[in-house]
Amino acid sequence: MSAHLLAAEATDVGNPVVNVAIFAVFVAVTLGIVRRASRQNKAAADYYAGGRSVTGPQNGTAIAGDYLSAASFLGICGAIAINGYDGFLYSIGFLVAWLVALLLVAELLRNTGKFTMADVLSFRLKQRPVRMAAALATLAVVFFYLLAQMAGAGGLVALLLGVDSTAGQSVVVAVVGALMILYVLVGGMKGTTWVQIIKAVLLIAGAAVMTVWVLAKFGFNLSDLLQGAIDKAGPGGEALIEPGKQYGATGTTKLDFLSLALALVLGTAGLPHVLMRFYTVPSAKEARRSVVWAIWLIGIFYLFTLVLGYGAGALVGPETISSAPGGVNSAAPLLAFALGGEILLGFISAVAFATILAVVAGLTITAAASFAHDIYANVIKRGEVKPDGEVKVARITVVVIGILAILGGIFAQGQNVAFLVALAFAVAASANLPTILYSLFWKRFNTAGALWSMYGGLISCVVLIAFSPVVSGKVDPVTGASLSMIKNTDIDFAIFPLSNPGIVSIPLAFLLGIVGTLLSREKPHPEKFAEMEVRSLTGAGAEKATVH
Asked: 242 φ, ψ to 5°?
């Protein structure tokens, strides 16, 4: 069977009825679990932090579920299938980043915070301006991350149902958004945690089965697999196993790679939805256990992506992948179809769909907590809020964010989801990480430094993305079609040459934090820093688990 026929079969013949049936079962089961978990949501601590009663292994698996998004499964498999070694660099970056998060921030944040990142940042600084800045930075990161997930969902369902039209894919994105809103409204953090755990187990198990299957086809010989991918790629296929296929062509692309690596490695420690997961455990010990579990699960999964990416390149072929609905993001589902027909395609796609739902649910609850807890309760109401008022505002926020994510996802269709997530990482590393590190480790750091760093990092990052080839001016040299978010090739305002702004915005944010602190006349509070240091290292005064 030719590769072209295979793609046609996956989209036209690969039975949409079977795919939708498997989808429906997944959604029904997970919604049932969410509904059951939500019965325990009595107070804000239950809604935002799952009553702090989640164990280390459970939280570690949920973190893996939160972190292994559509980018990890669909985006990286596609990037490896098309660009080989350069695609695998995403896997390496995402994994190394975890070590940074573990060593620098995970436990310290858990010990000093309550519900959100802003709790930590405002501990020794002026509450209202810092909370406002932290909440806006959180909302920006969440928005970019949601774009990626929505684009992934649109592409995936388009592939399964054979929907080629932009309008059809837009409807799909809207349905995903509506489901996501429902999950979070009903379940809160407890429900979201259980969806993430189930999805992580299924995703890793599904990827493990496919990995063994692919290796078995090549006699468990990795060299034969790589050779198969080279042969399928045709002339110049050797580039797949050499560095530089995507990022080695010019000085600009090499610089872009450095920028990407910086964003990936430093971004994780500033991702609000991952950091928020540490507030769900009852103690610092469980926080440490959860990170160890997460690293093992995430590390094993990223090794699988190497085999799956090259397997898709060898068994499906880069041409077929690029021309399928969903483009690069369809590599993993097409590989599933090539291995086990429509049943495996349906199962893997349903798992990928559950992946997207779980991640967007985690993101949405983070954004809702950030707006309701930081902006509404502490900035607008100055801490004087009715017990149920905050959760009500959080639920309204969920709906608004859902609608914005749907609109953004419609624009971002066709972009590689791993690449879109890398933008979210750049925003997180620019807006959040410098302030987190300075707050935890620099005695002299003050409010002005925090505001300069957060707003400077956030604005510079978002402005550079707006004027980069991501938004306009990137054209495919072969087809002449636009590869940017704006599909009209006549519109081109890409002044900034790099696709990822991390190499400029991250150092700038660190520098602005220092400049803002040194120029400010605000007196330092050594006693506050000392209290924070004791808290962060010992967990004294941290929130305890609630008894249900």
From this structure: -115, 145
Give whole-number Cα distances, 36 to 33, 94, 193, 360, 414, in Å: 5, 33, 12, 20, 36
- Continuous segment of H or E residues that includes residue 548: none
Pick the closest to residue 324 from 86, 70, 74 (CA basis): 74
- Nearest CA among 236, 198, 208, 389 for reference residue 302: 208
Rounded CA separation 6/507 (Å): 47
Going by C-alpha positions, the residue among 306, 274, 284 that lies closest to residue 542 is 284
Bridge partner residues of 475 (DSSP): 482
Tokens of 503: 């190499």
- Nearest Cα neighbor of 259 from 469, 521, 37, 472 is 469
- Residue 504 maps to a domain: no
Structure tokens, 258 = 């450095």
Between helix 251-267 and helix 417-431 the angle, nearest 10°, is 70
Q: Nearest to residue 211, comparing CAs of 197, 222, 198?
A: 222
List the beta bridge partners of residue 113.
none
In a domain, 432, yes or no: no
pLDDT, tens digit, 9 for 90 and up, residues 49-65: 544 567 788 888 888 88
CATH of the domain at 343: 1.20.1730.10
Q: Is residue 408 within 8 Å of residue 150, measured between CB atoms? A: yes
Of 492, 422, 435, the closest CA to residue 461 belongs to 422
User: Residues 73-124: pLDDT tens digits?
Assistant: 888 888 898 888 888 888 888 788 877 777 777 777 777 766 667 777 777 8
Please report whether residue 429 resides in a domain.
no
Q: In sequence order, what E strands does 321-424 have?
A: none
d(CA 309, CA 330): 11
Q: Rounded to whole angstroms, how far apart are CA atoms 407 and 316?
A: 32
Closest listed residue to residue 27, CA positions, set 234, 178, 144, 133: 178
Residue 86 counted as domain residue: yes
Distance separating alpha carbons of residues 150 and 49, to the nearest angstrom: 25
Residues 6+ away with beta carbon under 8 Å from 340? 213
Which domain does 115 fall in, by range? Answer: 3-418
Residue 335's SS3 state is: helix
| Count: domains in the chain | 1
Could you tell me the CA-to-CA distances from 269 to 42, 321, 432, 505 in Å, in that order?
A: 30, 33, 9, 16
Average pLDDT in the chain = 80
Burial class (CB in 10 A: 0-12, 13-18, 19+), 165: exposed
What's the sign of the alpha-carbon dihedral 339, 341, 347, 351? positive
Whether the predicted pLDDT of 547 surpasses 60: no
Look at residue 33 and tell me whether its pLDDT is greater than 70: yes
Q: What is the 3-state secondary structure (H, E, C) of 160-222?
A: HHCCCCHHHHHHHHHHHHHHHHHHHHHHHHHHHHHHHHHHHHHHHHHHHHHHHHHHHHCCCCH
Residue type for 253, please?
A: T
Contact 474, 483 (CB under 8 A): yes
- Tell me, what DSSP letter sits at residue 380? I
Rg over CA atoms, the chain = 23
